[in-house]
From TrEMBL, chain A:
Residues 1-26 are annotated as: Disordered. Coiled coil: none annotated. Residues 95-322 form the ABC transmembrane type-1 domain. InterPro entries: MetI-like, MetI-like_sf, Phosphate_PstC, Phosphate_Transport_Permease. It comes from Myceligenerans indicum. This is Phosphate transport system permease protein. Belongs to the binding-protein-dependent transport system permease family. CysTW subfamily. Part of the binding-protein-dependent transport system for phosphate; probably responsible for the translocation of the substrate across the membrane. Signal peptide: none annotated. It holds the Pfam family BPD_transp_1. It is found in: Cell membrane. The chain crosses the membrane at residues 39-61, 87-120, 132-156, 186-205, 243-266, 299-322. Gene3D superfamilies: MetI-like. NCBIfam families: phosphate_pstC. The gene is pstC.
UniProtKB/TrEMBL annotation, chain B:
Belongs to the binding-protein-dependent transport system permease family. CysTW subfamily. It comes from the Bacteria. It is a multi-pass membrane protein. InterPro entries: MetI-like, MetI-like_sf, Phosphate_PstA, Phosphate_transprt_permease. Residues 87-304 form the ABC transmembrane type-1 domain. The gene is pstA. It holds the Pfam family BPD_transp_1. It is found in: Cell membrane. This is Phosphate transport system permease protein PstA. The chain crosses the membrane at residues 34-55, 83-112, 124-151, 157-174, 206-227, 286-307. Keywords: Cell membrane, Membrane, Phosphate transport, Transmembrane, Transmembrane helix, Transport. It comes from Myceligenerans indicum. Part of the binding-protein-dependent transport system for phosphate; probably responsible for the translocation of the substrate across the membrane.
Length: 336, 316
């Protein structure tokens, strides 16, 4: 770290222990407004933690009535709520749909994202590399509602023949079984769109790690006569493994919380179906909330907030795990 | 960080690989080059297709009327009306979000770079990163939960949207500002201290002034990131067809929500022979709003990068 210490003295000289502690505590070198400014800056930092805590607290507080309500009460006030179902059983298929869409998107996006990262870090002509990197970053700049429009009106018709082909020739595979949707509004289409949406973050993080590969390792591999791919496989990929894992986790976090693209493409349903090509079987938490919230009132609002709490907990866990992995190698994060 | 295999094993592997048949290795290498180029092309395909579709579908709806009228008293199928109310709503709500996020974000970055050490700083760094992953809909729910407690159920005002967006925006501002403040050379700070300038003035007049271009870039990119958010605005601000400039009273329309609303309305029921009725006008409106939105986002991205290129001090 290259942080300057308090102005005149720098680090306190190694002296008697008590003295150091006293200096820190009283902040000898800070007088007047300097001290106030430090409080303001520290307050801003603390505010962020407070906001995150507030998010959790308010979601719990407002979701609580739904969590404690009896199934009968819920069935009365929540539209389309089946009788005799606990809240957990009701939210279960939503959690399943959310995880299914996100994991599928990740399976599609991670290999491609790694390929793009390698392309930019090791394969593209040097001069073009940065510009091409910007191009991929542009994918992250496009608003999700536009992905939704595009996914439904352009991508779904393009993918439909592919899904039909899979449905005809690969229906022995459980994931592709069932009746292929005639509109393409299936979770498979959603997964493809989500994969495009999480590509930029996976690419950005893996690119940073790949670029950090020690030059000497790469040159050593090449000097031993390795081809370029062998150099990548023996020097770059092993070095970047943890980075790629956390990149994938960050992508998973994004895909879990994505709302609009799912809402606009998927034809919803509440089952634990594994038939990816069928429409009307799945729904994600985020899309469910966005769809039902504008018309909800009373206990239905609490139910939606409780579902949101489930989403918050899942994404928080995924992100914290990813950050914990990434924090071991500091220099990058999704936000830069 | 390290390979998980031992050095001896790695040497063995490398030896085997290098003594394998040369032609096969070359073929594999060539194949992987093709695969990796293909991956890149695969990422560009949606980008190009998307931009092309938005441009192609949106340009036809563009007109002065479309940009300067609201949707008030426009019936389904009526080709009149426009997105003026949505543009104004987007600018106001995003502006308020920036007004909240920039001071908090930059001050936090100052805290982390200039003062931060110990458990609080570590916690802030970690949770700022975690916060970048909060789903936007959860931010919207949080704001609704917060404001309906104060204003009663059913409250939908512009400021709620601004707060929701700032929850999403603050971590982005913190991270980018932090990077920029770290770039300020220590010599500048030390020179300032040597002249007897107190720390807070040093930060305001030396550190911030040196990095102002980078900070602007960071803020513009952060704005570009949240300006397209739909879900939190949909649940926290609601929809309206009328013009509303007061973020403290009543619902507001925003561009992304407008695009979604028009999309979800679908084809209009037109009577046969009714020439004043256009069946797919809602989709056209959606594409028009999408084009406007993308234009704003791209503009912010380009201006952001140019600001940094033109005004950044030459440190090296």
């Amino acid at each position: 770290m290259t942080i300057t210490d308090s102005p005149p003295s720098g680090e306190a000289p190694p002296g008697p222990r008590g003295r150091v502690v006293r200096r820190r505590a009283s902040g000898d070198t800070e007088r007047g407004f300097s001290r106030i400014f430090r409080w303001i800056a520290t307050g801003a930092g603390a505010l962020i933690l407070a906001v995150l805590a507030a998010v959790a607290l308010f979601l719990i507080a407002r979701g609580w009535p739904a969590i404690t309500a009896t199934p009968a009460e819920l069935a009365d006030s929540v539209p389309r709520y089946p009788d005799d179902t606990s809240l957990v059983a009701y939210v279960g298929p939503l959690v399943f749909g959310t995880l299914l869409a996100a994991v599928l998107a990740l399976l599609l996006a991670t290999p491609v994202g790694m390929g793009i990262a390698l392309f930019i870090s090791h394969y593209a002509p040097r001069r073009l590399a940065q510009g091409l990197g910007y191009l991929v970053d542009l994918l992250a700049a496009i608003p999700s509602v536009i992905y939704g429009l595009w996914g439904f009106l352009v991508l779904a018709p393009v993918l439909k023949p592919v899904w039909f082909w899979l449905g005809e020739n690969a229906s022995w595979f459980p994931l592709f079984a069932g009746k292929v949707s005639a509109t393409g509004k299936s979770i498979a289409t959603v997964a493809v769109v989500l994969a495009v949406m999480v590509l930029p973050i996976i690419t950005a993080v893996s690119r940073e790690v790949f670029l950090q590969t020690p030059k000497l390792h790469e040159e050593a591999a090449l000097a031993l006569g390795a081809t370029r791919w062998e150099m990548v496989r023996t020097a770059v990929l092993p070095f970047g493994r943890s980075g790629v894992i956390s990149a994938a986790m960050l992508g998973l976090g994004r895909a879990l919380g994505e709302t609009m693209a799912v809402l606009m493409i998927l034809s919803p349903g509440f089952t634990y179906s594994l038939h990816l090509l069928e429409a009307g079987n799945h729904q994600t938490i985020a899309a469910y909330i966005a769809n039902d919230f504008p018309e909800a009132s009373g206990l239905a609002v609490n139910t939606l907030i409780a579902t949101g709490l489930a989403l918050f907990v899942i994404t928080l866990a995924v992100n914290m795990l990813a950050r914990w992995i990434v924090a071991r190698r500091k220099e990058f994060s999704g936000a830069n | 960080m390290n390979t998980t295999i031992s050095a001896a094993e790695a040497m063995q592997q490398t030896k085997e690989m290098l003594t394998a048949s040369g032609q096969r290795r070359k073929n594999v290498d060539r194949m992987m080059t093709v695969v990796i180029w293909f991956c890149f092309a695969l990422a560009l395909a949606p980008l190009v297709s998307l931009l092309w579709t938005v441009l192609g579908n949106g340009i036809g709806r563009m007109s002065i009327d479309f940009l300067t009228l609201s949707m008030r008293n426009v019936f389904p199928g009526d080709p009149g009306g426009g997105i003026y109310h949505a543009i104004v709503g987007t600018l106001i709500i995003t502006g308020f979000a920036a007004l909240i996020s920039v001071p908090v974000g930059v001050l936090t970055a100052i805290y982390l770079v200039e003062y931060g050490r110990g458990p609080l700083a570590r916690a802030v760094t970690f949770f700022v990163d975690v916060m970048t992953g909060i789903p936007s809909i959860v931010a919207g729910l949080f704001v609704v939960a917060l404001f309906t407690l104060i204003l009663g159920p059913g409250a939908r005002i512009g400021v709620m949207g601004a707060v929701a967006l700032s929850v999403l925006m603050i971590p982005v501002v913190v991270r980018s500002s932090e990077e920029m403040l770290k770039l300020v050379p220590n010599e500048l700070r030390e020179a300032s201290y040597a002249l007897g300038v107190p720390k807070w003035l040093t930060i305001l007049r030396v550190v911030l002034r040196t990095s102002v271009a980078g900070l602007t870039t960071g803020v513009l990119l952060a704005v570009a990131r949240v300006i397209g958010e739909t879900a939190p605005l949909l649940i926290a601000v609601g929809v309206t067809d009328s013009f509303n400039v007061n973020p403290f009273d009543g619902r507001m329309m925003t561009l992304p929500v407008f695009a979604y609303r028009e999309y979800s309305q679908g084809n209009a029921p037109c009577r046969e022979g009714d020439l004043g009725c256009v069946t797919d006008i809602a989709f056209q409106n959606a594409w028009g709003a999408a084009l406007t939105l993308i234009a704003i986002v791209m503009l912010l991205n380009i201006v952001g990068r140019l600001v940094n290129r033109w005004f950044a001090p030459k440190l090296r």
